[in-house]
Design brief:
Blueprint: E1 6-10, H1 14-26, E2 30-34, H2 37-43, E3 49-53, H3 61-71, E4 77-81, H4 86-95, E5 99-102, H5 107-119, H6 142-155, E6 161-164, H7 171-180, E7 189-193, H8 202-207, E8 208-209, E9 221-222, H9 224-227, E10 232-236, H10 246-255, E11 257-259, E12 266-268, E13 272-277, H11 281-286, H12 292-298, E14 301-304, H13 315-323, E15 329-330, H14 332-340, H15 346-360, E16 365-366, H16 373-378, H17 385-388, H18 392-406, H19 411-418, H20 422-431
Parallel strand pairs: 1-2, 1-3, 3-4, 4-5, 6-13, 6-14, 7-10, 10-13, 15-16
Antiparallel strand pairs: 8-9, 11-12
């Protein structure tokens, strides 16, 4: 109920406090007025949500936010400021701010933000604010769990997110998580691969076109920003966005409005933008390949996904996740090879290797010889060389011995683990002189 919720309005300008209080009273909320950081901290225990000005004399809004989150971590905080600063926005969201609104505040936007904060729980955070990772994300490593935690924190704001990382690390998976953990989850997430589109088609794909705008435009067509209204636009490989299109894209980010190709009518859309790239955008800015103002507009909340080689704890859980539906398991020797490999193609390469191995495996157990040749060759280390020395019979013999050791010598269970018949296992033991 709105009537039971009390909003603390923290601003050193009395006129601003009165304006916001009037708007929130009209929406059915109670309010507490606070002129500085000290009064804000006194009010924190009594309120359901805090509206907090960033630039105040004495204790700044970011300093107040830090204190609030230490003492009352569950209290939602929405920051307000007339001075948009990318560094402030990033620091605020990472420090725990729920949203970041620009002055002069749009009253409808403010009330909607307050309603969302108090009326919609994040489906991926429990009541105790412990992170619940959805089943399609594997995050056993501390570094990957940190990425998911930051993504969950920023999900329910409208802040633009820039996901960085090498090709194949799972940028689209994190974008999907952010969308599904946001208040826009009931609307569409539209994906646009900027690197896959011919340069002359990028603008019409994003913003649509009018009939007759160019040769072949036989009918009017909506662009993806129009299609995704109310939802999320995920722009993959944003670094490939042509320079000629970047000014129009910047305008959409700043105003939410655009014109279709060949049209004069202005359309406005309400979308949340998530962008991703494997390029060094700051380097592209220095070399004139990417607009500096667009980079700062995109880089409000950067999320860096580490490559697979830097999170080895995720390798085997990812492999098991990929193989789950194929009813295949990894032999211990295979597991050692996977952990020793450098994975330059990241999760995408691991998926391809596991799908290939699942097809080649003679039974339910994936042995080292089922892996791609380049993986076996590149994985020779002091740890794995003993596994790879010798011919295929030696590799199979070691796999059988490991299966017997794991089952305490039970041949029936070992055969089941290897995915072969008990009779076949006995024949092989005789062949190997075991």
């Amino acid at each position: 109920m709105r009537s039971s919720a009390c909003i603390a309005i923290v601003d050193d300008e009395s006129a601003q406090r009165e304006l916001l209080a009037t708007a929130l009273h009209s929406a059915g909320y109670k309010t507490l007025a606070c002129a500085d950081g000290r009064e804000a901290l006194e009010a924190a225990a009594q309120c359901s949500l805090m509206l907090l000005d960033v630039r105040m004399p004495g204790m700044s809004g970011l300093e107040v936010l830090e204190c609030v989150k230490k003492e009352w971590p569950a209290l939602p905080v929405i920051l307000l400021t007339a001075f948009i600063d990318v560094r402030d926005a990033v620091a605020a969201i990472k420090a725990g701010a729920l949203d970041y609104l620009e002055k002069p505040v749009d009253i409808d936007e403010l009330v909607a933000a307050v309603d969302d904060a108090l009326g919609h729980a994040n489906p991926f955070l429990s009541s105790e604010s412990t992170l619940e990772i959805p089943p399609y994300i594997v995050a056993e490593s501390a570094s990957m769990r940190s990425v998911v935690e930051q993504a969950s924190r920023v999900a329910d704001s409208n802040v633009t997110v820039l996901i960085l990382g090498e090709s194949g690390v799972g940028k689209e998976v994190i974008a999907r998580f952010i969308h599904e953990a946001s208040s826009r989850r009931h609307m569409s997430m539209v994906r646009v691969d900027c690197g896959a589109l011919p340069e002359h088609l990028v603008e019409s794909e994003l913003f649509g076109y009018e009939k007759g705008a160019f040769t072949g435009a036989e009918a009017q067509r909506k662009g993806q920003f129009e299609v995704a209204n109310g939802g999320t636009v995920f722009l993959d490989e944003i670094g490939e966005l042509p320079l000629l299109v970047q000014p129009k894209f910047l305008t959409v980010l700043e105003t939410g409005c655009f014109r279709r190709v060949g049209g004069s009518r202005e359309f406005c859309t309400d979308v949340r933008v998530i962008a991703a790239t494997n390029r060094d955008l700051e380097g592209d800015v220095r070399q004139g390949r990417f607009r500096e103002d667009l980079f700062y507009r995109l880089n409000v909340f950067p999320l860096k996904i580490p490559p697979l080689r830097e999170r080895p704890d995720d390798i085997l859980p990812l492999a098991d996740h990929i193989l789950k539906d194929r009813k295949r398991r990894l032999a211990p020797a295979t597991e050692r090879l996977l952990r020793a490999y450098d994975w330059p193609g990241n999760v995408r390469e691991l998926r391809n290797a596991m799908e290939r191995a699942a097809i080649l495996a003679n039974g339910s157990l994936i042995l080292p010889h089922d892996l791609p040749p380049q993986l076996r060759k590149a994985s020779i280390t002091p740890e794995t060389s003993s596994v790879l020395v010798g011919d295929m019979d030696e590799i199979q013999r070691r796999a059988i011995l490991e299966a017997l050791e794991k089952t305490n010598g039970n041949k029936t269970q070992a055969a089941a683990l290897l995915g072969i018949s008990r009779r076949n296992l006995i024949y092989k033991l005789r062949d190997y002189g075991v």
